[in-house]
């Protein structure tokens, strides 16, 4: 791709952790615009010529690329502890990480699945293969991460979801989903694009999966249904329920478990 990215570094406050936080601007060819992104780089990156695995961490509905590092500054500590790069791309206020069939300027599925990894691999010393890439996120980002892993298992070898909105059908009149997928009451697109209805796409793909949701979360029923679908299809996965709701207290706790899961996955490759 031509003119893939512009680059500049910004260091986010605090010297409590050694990892550095870069803000970069990636150029999306498919959407013809520049989009900001955070990359958390472990301290050891500058002390060797080693390559690093990457976890792509997606934000939720109405969020932005900076949400995770502002809300969970411990991400810097985790990058050092697990020896990986954490990338927080921007998924727009309400893209749901789809290539929208009705809003032609919204192509965040392609951007996140292809353009962002290509840009990160071009800037940093990464292992540029599926065995060293994982994707996860919260809420809208949880659905986006699993959806993208279903469609692009050749790019992401592991995927996760925290409080993911894994069934879109009950919420098609909320969260701007109509603006992304269409406004027909019986629109099958909501069903067809829900993660819970596409579990078969993981069959024989060897994508390592981790799904968790708080028992007080409004999406808990959909996540339990997803878990049952995976069990029925005999698709290996980690499924966790713990006390908590749909909030940053839960996600700040959850991300440590997810990064440990991905660290173990990377170490096994």
Provide an overview of this structure.
The chain is of the alpha/beta class and 269 residues long. Helices cover 31% and strands 19% of the residues. It has helices at residues 67-71, 75-82, 108-123, 140-151, 177-181, 189-192, 220-232, 248-267; strands at residues 5-6, 20-28, 33-41, 54-58, 85-89, 133-137, 158-162, 208-214, 238-242. Strands 1-2-3-5-4-6-7-8-9 form a nine-stranded mixed β-sheet, with helices on both faces. The radius of gyration is 17 Å and the shape is globular. The relative contact order is 0.14.
Question: Can you summarize this structure?
Answer:
This protein is of the alpha/beta class. It is built from eight helices and nine strands. The chain has a nine-stranded mixed sheet with strand order 1-2-3-5-4-6-7-8-9, sandwiched between helices.
What characterizes the major β-sheet?
9 strands, mixed
| Element-level helix/strand string | EEEEHHEHEHEHHEHEH
What share of residues is helical? 25-40%
Residue runs with pLDDT of under 50 for 5 or more positions: 1-17
Number of DSSP helices? Answer: 8
Radius of gyration: 17 Å
């Amino acid at each position: 791709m031509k003119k893939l990215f512009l680059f500049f570094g910004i260091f986010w406050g605090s010297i409590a952790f050694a990892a550095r936080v870069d803000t970069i601007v990636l150029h999306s060819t498919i959407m013809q615009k520049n989009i900001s992104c955070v990359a958390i780089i472990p301290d050891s990156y500058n002390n060797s010529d080693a390559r690093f695995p990457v976890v792509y961490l997606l934000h939720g509905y109405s969020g932005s690329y900076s949400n995770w590092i502002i809300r969970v500054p411990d991400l810097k500590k985790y990058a050092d502890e697990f020896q990986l790069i954490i990338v927080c791309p921007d998924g727009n206020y309400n893209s749901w990480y789809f290539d929208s069939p009705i809003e032609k300027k919204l192509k965040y599925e392609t951007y996140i699945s292809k353009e962002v990894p290509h840009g990160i691999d071009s800037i940093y010393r990464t292992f540029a293969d599926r065995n060293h890439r994982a994707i996860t996120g919260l809420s809208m980002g949880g659905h986006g991460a699993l959806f993208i892993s279903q469609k692009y298992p050749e790019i992401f070898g592991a995927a996760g979801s925290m409080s993911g909105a894994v069934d879109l059908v009950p919420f098609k009149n909320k969260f701007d989903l109509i603006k992304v997928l269409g406004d027909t009451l019986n629109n099958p697109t909501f069903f067809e694009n829900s993660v819970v209805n596409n579990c078969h796409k993981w069959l024989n793909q060897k994508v390592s999966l981790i799904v968790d949701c708080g028992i007080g979360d409004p999406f808990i029923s959909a996540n339990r249904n997803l878990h049952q679908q995976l069990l029925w299809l005999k698709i290996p996965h980690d499924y966790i329920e713990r006390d908590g709701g749909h909030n940053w207290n839960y996600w700040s706790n959850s991300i440590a478990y997810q990064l440990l899961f991905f660290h173990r996955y990377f170490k096994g490759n």
